[in-house]
Design goal:
By secondary structure, this protein is an alpha+beta fold. The protein is built from seven helices and eleven strands. A hairpin with a 4-residue loop joins strand 9 and strand 10.
């Protein structure tokens, strides 16, 4: 026992030295880590400050632009909507959600009428009445809340129409300029020189249109109900000039004549035949041997282009063609 006590007394200074050294090491590393963390946070703070200044500047510029084109909302907007709604008094499920600001859950207890449906035609369509929908909308959002939503939508629509008018004006100006250049005798030599290049570009564009049509047909198919399903083709790495050429505006590689909505340039109800480069009397169909039926792509499609990601998407629907 005395030997153990003596050993403990002799080894205590050594262990104390090790513990003190370890604590000093931890303290030093903590100081270094704290300094590095502080420096990193300072860098992030500086970057955030710069970003905040840039964002504030951009916001200020955007606000100035919006203030220069203020939209006057009609005073009777809410009363008119309550009285007339969409005008025809018959509303589909999709329109009920969009126009009356309702959700699927809001429509659960609303009376409706089923129209259509059947084998190969999909599920029946639900049709609602305006009086029933406006009652639910007022109960859900309140009179003040519904009025605010209507006003916000009215302003968005008015600004969208303004952008569309500006884009149409630029398109008309470009077409007028192109027509004047074509009519000018001074451009005859330039036209002759560039004819070969234009022909080559036209061939490439035709190949692209044919490829997109082939991909669209591959995407066609059937829903579980037996009806034709909607199709969608996405094309990455698409340049703005290519999108403009596909839309019949090869001279507008800056997309000045297109109207942008959010992050996308959207062209709805665009001619299917024009986009895929086929004659108007051509039936764009696909035959399904197992089902013994054909589907024909509708006359119009939706084309969307996202310039920030260079993404092009084409979507549409088809109708059944029995043979």
């Amino acid at each position: 026992h005395k030997t153990s006590v003596s050993f403990a007394i002799l080894t205590f200074p050594f262990f104390a030295f090790l513990i003190a050294t370890f604590l000093c090491f931890v303290s030093t590393m903590s100081s270094i880590s704290a300094g590095s963390t502080k420096a990193a946070l300072q860098d992030v703070s500086n970057q955030s400050s710069n970003a905040a200044v840039a964002a504030a500047t951009a916001t200020s510029m955007n606000k100035t632009k919006i203030n220069n084109s203020e939209v006057t909302v009609p005073r009777d907007l809410l009363d008119s909507f309550i009285k007339y709604g969409m005008g025809d008094g018959i509303v589909s499920s999709k329109e009920a959600k969009q126009e009356y600001f309702l959700t699927t859950q809001d429509l659960w207890n609303v009376r409706y009428q089923s129209i259509g449906g059947g084998i190969g035609c999909g599920a029946p369509m639900k049709i609602y009445k305006h009086d029933d929908l406006i009652e639910v909308a007022l109960a859900t959002h309140g009179r003040s809340g519904l009025e605010q939503k209507l006003q916000a939508r009215y302003k968005r629509q008015a600004k969208k129409e303004q952008r569309e008018r500006e884009a149409d004006a630029k398109l008309a100006a470009q077409e007028q300029k192109a027509a004047a250049a074509a009519a000018s005798t001074n451009s005859a030599a330039a036209t002759a020189t560039s004819s070969t290049t234009n022909a080559e570009e036209s061939k490439d564009l035709k190949k692209l249109r044919a490829s997109l049509l082939k991909f669209a047909k591959k995407k066609m198919g059937f829903e579980r109900s037996g009806s034709p399903k909607s199709w969608r083709v996405e094309v990455p790495n698409t340049l703005a000039a290519t999108f403009a050429a596909l839309m019949g505006r090869p001279q507008d590689d800056q997309l000045e004549t297109f109207c942008k909505k959010g992050a996308y340039y959207t062209m709805e109800y665009y001619s299917t035949h024009s986009f895929f480069g086929v004659s108007p009397d051509t039936d764009i169909t696909k035959y399904f041997g197992r089902e013994g039926v054909s589907q024909r792509i509708a006359d119009t499609i939706t084309v969307r282009y996202k310039p920030s990601a260079n993404e092009l998407s084409i979507s549409g629907w088809a109708e059944m063609c029995h043979e």
